[in-house]
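Morning F.,

Quick status update on the modeling queue. The single chain you submitted on Monday has been processed. Sequence for confirmation:
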Amino acid sequence: MPAATDKAALLAVTEKEYEKLEKLIVVLDADQAAAGEDGTSIKDVIGHRAHWIALFLGWYGDGQAGKPVFFPAEGYKWNDLKRYNADLQMRQARLRWGEVRALLADRKHALVGLIGSLSEDQLYGGPMKGANNAWTTGRWAEAAGASHFRSAAKFIRAALRTG
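Structure tokens below.
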């Protein structure tokens, strides 16, 4: 699926992919959310997706404020993602399934709010401030939202087939 190139398409794909994901998770109970493979549960994946939206919102805010932007997070580099994600999974381990679902909904709401508040130029007129690459704010927002929702749905469908 090609990346969105304007605000309307970005909002549409964000809502569409979230709705697909929500349909999968709304019917799951805590035991079903514990299903997964390789030590990663559905609950872990949903918590991860919620967290990455928060990371993106922080990157955007820090860049706009002229602060240093740490990708993916302070003390980690992109080649440390396995370690970062394992650390995140440990930090989120005590969260209950309902809390994780609420976190995802809240973060998605914040993401859509940010996208809605930005102009076409702010979303797609140039690289996101502080990102140190060519990706626009809109592209980063899609990676943190719609793309992550899509991959989470794929994981969940597979986990439910094998679980």
